[in-house]
Amino acid sequence: MSDLLSRFPRVPLADLPTPLHEAPRLTETLGGPRVLVKRDDATGLALGGNKTRKLEFLLGRALAEGHDTVVTFGAVQSNHARQTAAACARLGLRCELVLTRSVPRPDALYETSGNVLLDGLLGARTHIVDGADEALALLAEIGPAYAIPPGGSDATGALGYVAAGLEFAAQAADLPGGVDRIVVATSTAGTTAGLALGLAHAGLDTAIEAVCVYEPAGVTAATLDAVLGATADLLGAPLPERRPRVHGDWFGPGYGVPTPEMVEAVRLFARTEGILLDPVYTGKAAAGLAGLARTGAIGPDETVVFWHTGGAPGLFVYPDALTGAGAS
Ligand SMILES: *Cc1c(COP(=O)(O)O)cnc(C)c1O
User: Residue 146 is part of which domain span?
Assistant: First the structure.
């Protein structure tokens, strides 16, 4: 690993490097850009995902600071919470998850299956709450703990994606012609911010297309700027000259709310490459990839990497959207 990251405590959790797969049938179906898929759904920790890379640095720090309890926050179906629970199990840390009902899904399936089912199996204590007041009251009850923000997106967590950017640069060096663009789902933005800094440090000018899935484009762009600034400060590195472009067109009515384009994209990846996306994050990002290719914003001669950030456990709590009328 480069000197850039060697001074930060890190605990190994992910199987790295993750594969970078050609996607020839997807490429053919999109009728244009050559598509590859970076498989961060295959980080190997309890069904994997992008939070595993962040947790290497976050829990590295928690251990270095002598904590025995970790608390983190998310939606009821948070992939971040599930990966935190798994990492804590592996490291023998106590894990408290404060999960907020932030998606309009009052049904029992949403609160018992998918990620939240796994949280319990992995030994975490889950607390489902309606809002910030309840969450704060819980924090007092939980007591001293290493607190990880939603999505693991502080500067320390984003270091995991600085490392991913360096990892990717080494893989891209073997591709004749290089990689023109990366398309990635963006919510709390640590993934996108870390990647932008890692690619810049490696000297790559690959463009990043950040597809909003959590908040509309304006809010997401501000979140991204804040995480970029904090992470650059922590690294003592300059801000990247080439900023990620933030797209709000595939967000739909809200976080965790299905769109027809998402369903279409989940089916497209499944049926052309046997790759499972998810309804909340990667399905909407892949809808962005398809949309940008269709309009020519991603040119037919380009090479584009779809950065798969995980999330497949979420498929099991969206049976109606994925199998319902109009979704075949
Ligand atoms: C959290 C998450 C993202 C978004 O990552 P951020 O760093 O929060 O922007 C994307 N995809 C999946 C599957 C996630 O769980």
Answer: 51-152
| d(C-alpha 271, C-alpha 265), whole Å | 10
* Per-residue model confidence as pLDDT tens digits over 266-311: 999 999 999 999 999 999 999 999 999 999 999 999 999 999 999 9
Query: Which tens digits make up the pLDDT trace of 231-257?
Result: 999 999 999 999 999 999 999 999 999
C-alpha to C-alpha distance for 151 and 72, rounded to whole angstroms: 9
Which residues have CB under 6 Å of ligand 1? 49-50, 79-80, 151, 153, 185-192, 278, 281-282, 309-311
326: pLDDT strictly greater than 60? no
- Are residues 24 and 35 both part of a single domain? yes
Say which CATH number the domain at 294 has: 3.40.50.1100
The answer for residues whose C-beta is within 8 angstroms of residue 216's C-beta and 6 or more apart is 248, 251
Count how many domains the chain has. Answer: 2
Mark whether 260 and 303 lie in a shared domain. Answer: yes
pTM value is 0.97
Phi-psi region of 176 (alpha: psi -120 to 50; beta: other; left: phi over 0): beta
On whether both 121 and 70 belong to a single domain, the answer is: yes
Instruction: Kindly state the average pLDDT of the residues 2-10.
Output: 91
Q: Which residue in the list 2, 78, 153, 187 is annotated as catalytic?
A: 78
Last residue of a domain, one of 137, 152, 167: 152
Catalytic residue check, 78: yes
Atom of ligand 1 nearest to the CA of 193: 7
- The partner residues of 97 in beta bridges, in order of sequence, read 72, 126
Angle, helices 217-235/155-172, rounded to nearest 10 degrees: 90
